[in-house]
Amino acid sequence: MPLELHLLFAGERGKVRIIDRLARQEWNTKSSKGYRGQTIVFTNSRQRCHGLAKALQINAAAYHAGLSQKERRRITRAFADGKLEVVVTTAALAAGVDFPASQVIFESLAMGIDWLTGHAFHQMLGRAGRPDYHDLGKVVLLAEPDRKYHGGSETEDEIAFKLLKHEIEPVDVMYEEPAQMEELLASSALARNKEELHHLSDLLIGGGDFSYLFGRLVKYGLLTRSATPTEFGRIVATHFLSVEQAFLIRDAIEKDASPLDTVVSLETFDSVYFKNAARISAALKMHIPSRVFQGAAYDIVFLGDGVSALDGDIREQILAFITDFMVCKHKDAPHCGCAELAFSKRLVEMRCEGLDPGGIVRKIGDYGIYAYGGDVLEYLDHVARNLEAIEMIARVFGNEAVGQDAKRVRKAVEG
């Protein structure tokens, strides 16, 4: 599909007007196949997705991984059916979803907290144009001159020229050892013997010394010498656990640790944001990150001087959050990870008390924070899967009490 690439310079306020005009022009143009032009707008944060979608005069929807599956499916269907002119998204649509867009606009040349890489940029601009729909794909970069991002030295206009000049380079994939062992263990489910497993390993990307990795998995009790998974290894592979997570679970079971404590130590929920980030930034006279569990937030918002400078209602919410989740005895608190663990545990407990993801989102609003229902649902799904792994591994190692406790919590999470 031929691509047209355009670079436009615009200030932050002017970008919305330009996007609206370009999207409207594209929508009013039909291809030789009879399809209207549709636009994907990439921006750098979920919050910005919603803000842009609301600001545009043309019909637009925000799309990102934090939305529920039902919401994402509705937007996907409306776009595919030609009933939605614009989707504003993060990197969630960079790959893997076949949206028939004829035009891609980069409202920001950053994704998250970093500038776009050349590889990511080429992947994202590839969303523009489909042979069965369009005659041409259009890509527009909106760069704000002299805009710097998170204290970096490069400006957005400099990044724009760098991206446009970037050529795709060959990629050589090499996994770290834990990922290599995880891949080899998963492959053992398909092999009838050691020779077949060796052959499968040679076909996969990621590299690694087969003999060394095989020996480690046998030593760890995850594979037999005939290359079949042990019961422990089968559970680890089918529940997508890393070797490190497998032994964390095993050690916790041997100590009779609570499955709830174990499951949140496997994966915490950190997609949590300040509701009033703009007001907090104004009160502290500096930019603060929107995410709650970030080092910068710990160093600015949750310190005594920071809390005292906040407006009364926000101060009370932040103090309640500190009291419930950030009180611990570690010397490196609050950077020790205890806050994330305590918050994640409370989130699972709220689910066990009968709250659905929407109810959990409303409940944590009392702390002046919010999360997306889709993120909460995805996390609880991971929790349920990991609890099932704890339940099964506990039985392998003869700890029926922990297994029953894990089953009880899993049933409550699943509802």
Task: Detail the topology: elements first, then pairings.
Blueprint: E1 3-9, H1 12-27, E2 39-42, H2 46-55, E3 60-63, H3 69-80, E4 86-89, E5 103-106, E6 110-111, E7 114-115, H4 118-125, E8 137-143, H5 156-165, H6 177-187, H7 194-203, H8 210-219, H9 231-238, H10 243-254, H11 259-266, E9 273-274, H12 277-284, H13 295-300, H14 304-308, H15 312-325, H16 338-352, H17 357-364, E10 369-370, H18 373-396, H19 400-414
Parallel strand pairs: 1-8, 2-4, 2-5, 3-4, 5-8
Antiparallel strand pairs: 6-7, 9-10
Describe the structure.
With 415 residues, the protein is of the alpha/beta class. The chain has three domains: 3-165, 3-Layer(aba) Sandwich (Rossmann fold); 172-238; 273-371, no CATH class. The protein is built from 19 helices and ten strands. The protein has helices spanning 12-27, 46-55, 69-80, 118-125, 156-165, 177-187, 194-203, 210-219, 231-238, 243-254, 259-266, 277-284, 295-300, 304-308, 312-325, 338-352, 357-364, 373-396, 400-414; strands spanning 3-9, 39-42, 60-63, 86-89, 103-106, 110-111, 114-115, 137-143, 273-274, 369-370. The protein has a six-stranded parallel β-sheet with strand order 1-8-5-2-4-3, with helices on both faces. A two-stranded antiparallel ribbon has the order 6-7. It has a two-stranded antiparallel sheet with strand order 9-10. β6 (110-111) and β7 form a beta hairpin. α9 (231-238) packs antiparallel against α18 (373-396) and α17 (357-364) packs across α18. The longest helix is centred in the last third of the chain and has 24 residues, at 373-396. The chain is globular. It starts with a strand and ends with a helix. The relative contact order is 0.09. The model has no long low-confidence stretch (mean pLDDT 90).
